[in-house]
Amino acid sequence: MARAVTQNRKIINTVAAWTVGLLIFFPILWTILTSFKTEATAIADPPVFLAFDWTLENYSVVLERSNYMRFLWNSVIIAGGSTILGIIIAVPAAWSMAFVPGKRTKDILLWMLSTKMLPAVGVLYPIYLIFIKMGLLDSRTGLVIVLMLMNLPIIVWMLYTYFREIPGEILEAARMDGAGLKEEILYVLTPMAIPGIASTLLLNFILAWNEAFWTLNLTAAKAAPLTAFIASYSSPEGLFYAKLSAASTMAIAPILILGWFSQKQLVSGLTFGAVK
Amino acid sequence: MGQIKLNQVTKAYGDVEVIPPLDLTIEDGEFTVFVGPSGCGKSTLLRMIAGLEDLTSGKVAIDGADATNTPPAKRGLAMVFQSYALYPHMSVRKNIAFPMKMAGIDPEEQNRRIEAAAKALNLTDYIDRRPGQLSGGQRQRVAIGRAIVREPSAFLFDEPLSNLDAALRVGMRLEICEMHERLKTTMIYVTHDQVEAMTMADKIVVLQAGVIEQVGSPLELYHSPRNVFVAGFIGSPKMNLIEGEEAAKLDAHTIGIRPEHIDVTATDGIWQGKVAVAEHLGSDTFFHIHETGLAETITVRAPGEVSFRHGDTIHLTPRHDQIHRFDARGLRIE
Q1: Is B333's Cβ below 8 Å from some Cβ in A?
Q2: Which value does ipTM take for this structure?
Q3: CA B77 to CA B153: how far, in whole Å?
Q4: pLDDT digits (tens, 9 = 90+) for A199-230
Q5: Which of A124, A198, B75, B125 has the smallest set of CB atoms within 10 Å of its CB?
Q6: What range does the domain containing B44 cover?
Q7: Is A172 within 8 Å of B72 when comparing Cβ atoms?
């Protein structure tokens, strides 16, 4: 039964939603504001909210001191590469689990997910050694592989959920129409799953972009992405909050903009299949 | 060519055998209907012929060649699904073209066949629409168009009309029959609707629990049902089945008499009862009669308008030469 929403209730809901939204957004807002302050204003007590002398000095210092574009490019390659590679591997895997499940499919899915519960640091040492042996340390290739592996369970799970929503009869029709497995996936399944694949791509791109543990531990100079760029401003020589904030803002800006413009797709993707 | 032969085919899911060993030959050009109640295995059998379902044992031969392990794409059969199973992201044109694209037919020939199919199926005006913009009947036509253009050796229909409303269903039924007359291609049609089976088939295969109860032409099944199940399943309204004293008089365990083979009068007859429900259709009148002492309800179909009402006493006379006799195992006694 539909519930009547009174005017008061509407106001309360709106206020509550805005409060929660602002609480979540506040740290990002504060970082952005701090990036426009001088170092002195940044650590002022009591903190200054908006009434300060706005400056772009931090940005120019940061851009002068480090090669932002190189970090940005590394981030794009690592996040993009790991996501695309992950999708290429996950589409056939999710296809087989969704359309020709075996007795152990559910167990395999759960087992894949369980690897996400393992603290990453637990496998740092073996992976570090493997990277040294294979000459992958501080290489974009190495990071693409490791981040792809880290996110693969999520990619498979998401695609599996989308594929399950596609009526099996349509794929059977394709088989009857003379399509082999390759044609079935290429011409029928993938185009039908495009919304699902797009939101999976997006979410995993964001996850890979924000990933800090592996990118900080397995890179030094050559392959370092934006996470390393931020980290380089939190130095033991003393904290430069304003510059750190400027670096952070520059690092999160691309993904924030991407997320903003694709939020509708992202939300519908995440709740896909929740209601039949 | 499109002869399909099933030799000792079985299907089991784990320990549950849904189709015990079964033999069946469908001749080239024949319109065969698989009919039976829900869960009788008719769709499973069709899917086994299509190759969408693996056989547990036995062999399927198409045109004399063993196709048991041939994938569906290579069997040269076309299928029309109950849910239409159109590709939602493709236009009608692309849906129809898809099997030809898979077969590598040249684009000019593809276009020629698409135009011909669209014209035959009244789809020309919708050719660039997506399936989501079509009505149920139009979607089913597209599905049929997609099946026709690849010129298969046989068509398989899996309850293709059950999602359509009654009026459309009758129309599409005729279209499929006409298509069969025109193409003369083997067709296997699955339905639970015995009216569809009776009106469309050259040959009906009646199935129950995976077992073939009878194979024959619609009139053979109507006039000489091999057992009580077929007698009760074929014909609408259902045949009246009477056990006990009345059957024993005719040396049978069960006797069957179709509703249209009982004459009704107000005054005298062999049996009598009270009208529980009278359905006046104009062309016919159906009476559901209680308190006959024969069975819980006896159904009678009287031609034209007969004016008995609820509660009236009615006298019934079965036509003697139309009584079917069955033994204790339910088998027909000749």
Answers
A1: no
A2: 0.85
A3: 6
A4: 888 889 988 988 888 888 888 878 888 888 88
A5: B125
A6: 4-229
A7: yes
